[in-house]
Amino acid sequence: MKKLKRSARLVEMTQYLLNRPHTLISLTAFADRYQSAKSSISEDLAIIKEVFEEEGIGQLQTLAGAAGGVKFIPRMASEASLAIIQRVCRELEQPERVLPGGYLYMTDMLGQPNLLNDVGRIFATAFADRQIDVIMTVETKGIPLAYATASCLNLPVVIVRRDNKVTEGSAVSINYVSGSNKRIQTMSLARRALKEQSRVLIIDDFMKAGGTVQGMMDLLHEFNATVAGVGVFVESGEVGTEDRLLEDYVSLAKLTAVDLKTKQTTIVPGNYFDTE
């Protein structure tokens, strides 16, 4: 790269960091890239760090030593996260979104890139301190949420299928009981998709009793993998505690009441905001 003026270098360096979250970048790499002294690079990084923290973009961690450098950790301030989810709640409360069985139509919202980026940053903030190797979700509506989260954490995504695809080779399949309708269903994961003993963050779009998530957790046991966390976009609060299959999870929104006759719903921020 040609040598840049400092103003241009700051812009390019900021973009470089934003595109490589959770990646350690050495000062030498920056110095070589911009043909600048390490002292100048350090001053630039100090400016970027200050702006990132003041604007709630994230943190710029510095690691000292010969193998050190800087690492960008995306984060979203609690106030900004709450404002976004409150808007989501108002949008989801529209009567025409109520589907038979008390489900909510969310497909259109899960196709909005800006919202997905925000939700991904919120999940990335919630699980930033966990040691995670891979993001897992089950097809299909959870896929965009998983990729948005993975983008912020700079991690790969593994997709659990409802049935085994021939193109994915041999797979591990299990039967599980859906927590909402008590039906026995099947899910599978290609053997090559996940390394054994991986630490996995599960992301799902909607959770009633938690049967689907529990099924993914049972599937992970077959790979000797560990559940590092569970993130849910919307949970149903109409399921009693005694029927809930999960206790340790993070939800961003909660459906607390639904009237199928009038199609009136009440949706509030989820348990992620309980301690905020």
Automatic annotation (TrEMBL):
CDD domains: PRTases_typeI (cd06223). Residues 109-238 form the Phosphoribosyltransferase domain. GO terms for biological process: negative regulation of DNA-templated transcription; negative regulation of purine nucleobase metabolic process. Keywords: DNA-binding, Transcription, Transcription regulation. Pfam families: Pribosyltran, PuR_N. The keyword Transcription applies. Coiled coil: none annotated. InterPro entries: PRTase-like, PRTase_dom, Pur/Pyrimidine_PRTase, PuR_N, PurR_Bsub, WH-like_DNA-bd_sf, WH_DNA-bd_sf. GO terms for molecular function: DNA binding. Homodimer. Belongs to the purine/pyrimidine phosphoribosyltransferase family. PurR subfamily. This is Pur operon repressor. It comes from Paenibacillus albicereus.
